[in-house]
Design goal:
- This protein is of the alpha+beta class.
- It folds into two domains: 4-154, Sandwich (Jelly Rolls); 157-230, Arc Repressor Mutant, subunit A (Orthogonal Bundle), CATH 1.10.10.
- 42% of the residues lie in helices and 23% in strands.
- The protein is built from ten helices and eleven strands.
- A four-stranded antiparallel sheet has the order 1-8-3-6. It has a four-stranded antiparallel sheet with strand order 2-7-4-5.
- Strand 10 (214-217) and strand 11 (220-223) form a beta hairpin.
- Helix 8 (187-193) crosses helix 9 (198-210).
Amino acid sequence: MTSQHSDSRIDIPALLIRLPLFQALNAEEIATLAAHSRPRRLLKGEMLFQKGEVAHGFYVVVFGQIKLAFPSSSGNEKVVEIIGPRQSFGEAAMFAQHAYPVFAQALVDTLLLQVSQDIIFELLATDTSFARRMLAGLGMRLHSLIQDVESYSQRSSTQRVIGYLLQHCPAEEEADGGVEIVLPTSKQIIASRLSLTPETLSRILHDLTEAKLIDMQGKRITIRDLTRLRQYDF
């Protein structure tokens, strides 16, 4: 774990102002926010919090990845979300003053900013634009969860995998061209995120390779033609 001395050299205001949630705040508000925030470094595999712990603030990922998951009845775990750089999490539990419904674990070495709930409630009371952005962020999170439920109930396993691959393609790529992506985490975690078994995910990726829609080399996937992949009939 990195020393406290090293953490003290982190420029928290500079990190905060680059985050979409805080970009409209003025210098005084950023300084106040920074005074109530602290860096948290996690090593790969380290737990940030357990399911059932009470929230006292929320977190923003500076770099790294955080897995949000809960144990399933089968004794495994269900991955709810994978949080990456410039994304936040924990807001809903903070607002509700409830326990976390999931656990949070670092998938790689990760730097977070932990933001105190006291300063967030103060900003919400004095800055209506900040309140709107916070509500918009929570709304997008809820919309994403609803889409997940719809995907799991109405889309086939292959459709889920293709949707996941397309989601990770750069937006500026040409529809009729190929594109290379790198899976952000292990296939086991991706399978859980898509409510699939690892074996099913591997079979679907193999089938897409056999259909000459993708090429695979470890976590690196080359989509030969985005249009063909979107239109794949299965």
